[in-house]
Design brief:
The complex is a heterodimer. Chain A has 15 helices and 19 strands. Chain A starts with a helix and ends in a 13-residue tail after the last helix. The longest helix of chain B has 13 residues. The chains are: A alpha/beta, B alpha/beta. Chains A and B meet through helix 2, helix 3, helix 5, strand 8 and helix 11 of A and helix 4, helix 6, helix 7 and helix 8 of B. Bound molecules: iron/sulfur cluster. Iron/sulfur cluster binds next to loops of chain A.
Chain lengths: 462, 195
Amino acid sequence: MKKTLFDKVWDSHVVSSVSNGPDILYIDKHLIHEVTSPQAFNVLEEKNIPLFRPNQVVATADHNVPTENQHLPIQDALSRKQVTQLTKNCESHGVTLYGLGHPYQGIVHVIGPELGITQPGMTMVCGDSHTSTHGAFGTIAFGIGTSQVAQVFASQCVLVGKPKSMRVSVSGDLHPDVQPKDVILYIISKLGTDAGTGHFVEFAGSVFEQMSMEGRMTVCNMSIEMGARGGMIAPDQITFDYVSGREFAPKGHELEQKIAYWKTLPTDKGASFDTEFEFDAADIRPMITYGTNPGMGIKIGESIPELDDASFIKSLNYMGLKAGTNMLNLPISHVFIGSCTNSRIEDFRAAASYVKGKQKSPSVSALIVPGSQQVAKQIVAEGLDRIFEEAGFVLRQPGCSACLAMNDDKIPAEAYCVSTSNRNFEGRQGQGARTLLASPVTAAAAAVAGKIIDVSHPNGKI
Amino acid sequence: MEKFDILESSMVPLTVENVDTDQIIPARFLKATDRNGFGKNLFRDWRYTADNQPKADFILNNPSFSGSILVAGNNFGCGSSREHAAWALADYGFKVVISSFFADIFRGNALNNGILPIQVTPDELKQLFEVIETNPGTKAKIDLEAQQLQVIGSNISVNFELNDYKKMCLINGYDDIDYLINQKEAIEAFEQNRS
Ligand code: SF4
């Protein structure tokens, strides 16, 4: 039978199936962080059971850490307790931790790939919905709740029904100013936030074949925003080149063997999907969201739709925006470039190349938060730090930061923030904050102009 | 986990669509290291003003509506995987959530915490909202064994889906973790076979 990439990886990880119920799916790598793991460690202690495969668990502290003075004790008592608890739990259960101060620390979905922990054909889980990011490698990666974190601790497996399959193809040539973030925001704006429910999505077509690994990660990262459990892209030479040579990647003969296996993973010609969508790359332009779910996105310059729907109107009221108007020239006061969607080196290169030689608008606070210590180091090595600092941007230390505003990096009520993160929910970036999701270049351009501009439009290029 | 068999309760209608987990429990309340006490911050920013005054127009602050069944708009529980959302609902006292659509991770988290997510059609959801709003004390009876939801004093009756395994877990109060621990031999054999 012809199989999809998803089928191949899934089927090779099924230990057994519960009759008329879920599969027992074996998990190769389990990533954990301070916020969704403590209650799971408590379960092990309450039940007095050991952590089954500590070598397959990797921990970091990212969600709830400050992005300044990481060498000092964390000031907020509750946050400090949570991070300390993670350290203690990892020590007593033999789990490798890349905590604050470690050169490998960073956002869990940034460090997995950059350390070579993430590899094609694997199954990966983490108590975080954006685990879908790792699907860029042809990996089945999905977010789980804390009860399931405990289950993986106890058995290295999860009980989960096999999702349906969906393929989203985008072919043709992208407009030169279109970024991977625009591609995924465009797809979600067309399909809606529940189109993927119950599905695993494969992104296919020439646009993804030509995209860099970092771009693919941005796309797969947001598959959860279309409701899917995860997204995947077939591994190819770009993937193999990215993985080769990384710290925990296979080496030498083992790598050759793995690559031979990884080459068998792409979807067979003629394999069928439960659902299929196709888009033309030429239709995509830089995108921005105007509402309080990631499906509420438009091309910059397009008008906000007019819908007679209570939830839609509630959302626009929260955002302080009007149906039928467009967002061009909307004054903004905050810019956040970071999060597991867009905090890799290519994102900062793209932003810096726009910012170089310009100044941010005096009315804007612009925050740059690298996804990991390694990205932070690279920013300095390439001199991007000077470009940002000379332009008046503030460069911070790695963490989730204003993506979910658990730490002090909060956006004030009613302020507009152009953010490269993945969620524009009410209050996500701080109580009352108004988030406009966009690419790193659009965010950088907004910081410079002090308002929304279209970088793909000739007048947008100042 | 508590056993679930038959539940009879009045309902709380939350007509908003796309209720995401950040609304159910905002991130700033995720700093706890145990799973208790989240109920007081359930829907925090819809329930209270910034200076902690109850907002009169929010449904949980309306004394006409109470009960352990939450009836919510389409696509409930989208967003993050935080199980704190399910803990907050359970801690507040909800045992059932009815909607025309649930996000996958939320559905799993709810079931793992003894909360039954019942998916109805958009039409059925509309009817439910109508009867509750016309008559706030309206009760529903949920019979898990029969997989049936009945609105008492009306002709609304829905047969809902639930896979046999999850049904068995809820009825008996079993957790997935116990099931998996019992599979250890099979899991070890699987590991052996693939290496
Ligand atoms: S950056 Fe944001 S979305 Fe990504 S893991 Fe952190 S909190 Fe979650």
